[in-house]
Amino acid sequence: MAEQVRFGVVGLGAMGAGHCHYLRNLVPETELTAVCDTEVDRAQAMGEQYGVPFFTEPEAMFASGLIDAVLIATPHYFHAPLAIMAFQHGLHVLTEKPLCVTVSDADRMLAAARQSGKKFGIMYQMRTRPENRAARRLIEQGAIGEVRRTLLITAWYRTQAYYDSGGWRATWAGEGGGVLINQAPHYLDLFQWLGGLPARVFAQIRTRLHDIEVEDEAFALLEYPNGAHGYLYATTNEVPDENAIEICGDRGKLCLYNGKLEFWQFEHSIREFTFQSEEMWGSIHAERIEVPLETPPEGALRDHPAIIQNFARSILYDEALIAPGEEGLAVVELINALILSGKRGVPVSIPVDRAAYDALIAELKAQSRPKTRVREQHQTDPHLVR
Description:
CATH architecture of the largest domain: 2-Layer Sandwich
Largest sheet: 9 strands, mixed
CATH superfamily of the largest domain: Dihydrodipicolinate Reductase, domain 2
Distance between the termini: 29 Å
Order of helices and strands: EHEHEHEHEHEHEHHEEEEEEHEHHEH
Number of helices: 12
Strand order of the largest sheet: 14-13-12-11-7-10-9-8-15
CATH class of the largest domain: Alpha Beta
Radius of gyration: 22 Å
Strand content: 15-25%
């Protein structure tokens, strides 16, 4: 069996350029063998930089025989048609987040993946971090018991220049949403990975600060299948950046706050103690437990390169995927539910009504207008691992 997976990257903006670097320089199981972008100059420059053939038509690259797998780093609306096309050409697919814009497109992507029998992954690199993996182990071990309450705060800051850096950014026609579909997906993924997917949401979304047509702020009440409740808040209007997740259960509570994990184990089940205790002022002792974190081996990759390496090793050696493509559907369900609720002003159930969301996004795209102020920039986020 081959020792390297031949990758092609489609979409050579900031993220795509970063992925070309990872594939060529950081991940030993991968070989960058082709690049593609609809902008000829960008495609040619990247091809020349890495000494690989460049394409301006994705299907030509998919049919070239030069690649075994494709990494999709285009604007969101292109994720679904490109992934489906790649599967039809017998290629493995790793896509940037989010999986796609609509749940109906997600359904089509997953059907194409199943039919092809090829590997399908999504770039949820936050799952590779030790504190998040430890939190997931606690959940899987049943350490917190039945979930009683959840909380997510994912607060970021973006300048107007960021939104002006591309004509597609922060438009319904070009991106399909704002903070919920761009900045929030990583923590929406962790949130549902740990606490599960709500059964119903009641959301508000609004453009609070920026000169954009999509939301830069969203907040919602969440209701879970077992009756538990939660609260979610996402924004690009706040400094310093803050990301907090709380999952409160019947037997324990975990908190992830800006990359640090805290866990409390309860001496008794809340439900049982509440009715069994005969003490008027009885209380339950909660012990703070230090959760051991895995120490990655020296030289181990993290974040984006770790997801790419895991995906390549899944192809080569059938290693279990850290972020399977089918698990990306949950975040799209949540994003679509929040936007549908926010726009219609009513609670929305999950799974989302596919026809209802398709109708909404068609309305929003029809109202979308080309930007009058665009200053193109293609800088990779300096906070990414290089």
